[in-house]
Amino acid sequence: MEDIRTRALSCVERFGPLIPIQISKELSTNLIFAGAILSELVSRKSILITNVKKGGSPFYYVRGQEEKLQNLSINLGAREKEIYNSIKDNLVLMDNDLEPWQRVAIREIKDYAVKIDYSLNEINYVFWRWYLLNEQNAIELIKEGLPLEVEPKVENKEEILNEVLVNDDKEKIVEEVKIEEPKIEEVVEEKIEENLNQKILNYFKDSNIKLLGSHIVRKNSETNYEIEISSDIGALKYLAKLKIKKLINDKDLNNALNEGINLGMPVILFSNGMLNKKGREFLAKKSTYIMFKQF
Question: Which of 15-29, 72-86, 138-152 is the least confident region?
């Protein structure tokens, strides 16, 4: 197992940034094993993972390859690419100066924009620096661009009055809200989730699968489990998902697969529902990367 980890790390060091399918080919193994190995290397901080993706797959790289991340910008959406070009040209951008869509976009390009919280005259500002610009140089640029004194904001009395009236109305509405008894449907859904969760935990125990952690994604609908399965090449981490739904389709499987790819883990999808035709067709094509089990 250690030899495979070494080979995977060496592959990323020589050719990174790479997506999992490229690494699996270099290792002559399937995507499930490659994903598990990459996930472990990321947890050890031996390699890094990008936020930018190609076809739903992130890239893996090592320190020293940061400049190469610019080549991956072709995978950004139109708006993300526009703000990418802006921060690359300007080096530092002030959050308040951005349009609303730009504020959203710049938070999506985490590989290229680094947030800086800066205070002046007891006023807090948010800036973004180009990822290849070190923070000290970014601070110098910020100091050059900010005025030494900032006029205090004068609040409009009419706006304050309106705000008070709105808040007063909200308080009245809250007082009129009555506590309702939980609906029968909600109680039934909670019972289904509780029963399925227990079945899955029993399945893990009976199959000698180690549970590392779990969290509810959507109440009465979806739960994630991080598990560890023993294999001939050592312990492998998997993403196990419980999906409470009568029919599981190709979109459900694809969403689970993409989530696993983002985490660098193969996926096992558990459900009380059946696979529909499109779901079965999808699973037949992607069975190397995702498994399905009905309870």
Answer: 138-152
85-128: pLDDT as tens digits? 999 999 999 999 999 999 999 999 999 999 999 988 888 999 99
Q: Which two tokens stand for residue 260?
A: 């696993």
Whether the predicted pLDDT of 161 surpasses 70: no
CA-based end-to-end distance of the chain: 33
Q: Is cis: bond before 20, omega within 30 of 0? A: no
Distance between alpha carbon 260 and the CA centroid of its chain, in Å?
Answer: 10
In this predicted structure, the answer to whether residue 160 has a pLDDT above a threshold of 50 is no
pTM, to two decimals: 0.56
Which domains, ranges and CATH numbers included, belong to the chain?
A: 2-63 (1.10.10.10), 76-145 (1.10.10.10), 184-294 (3.40.1350.10)
The first and second tokens of residue 214, run together, are 């779990």
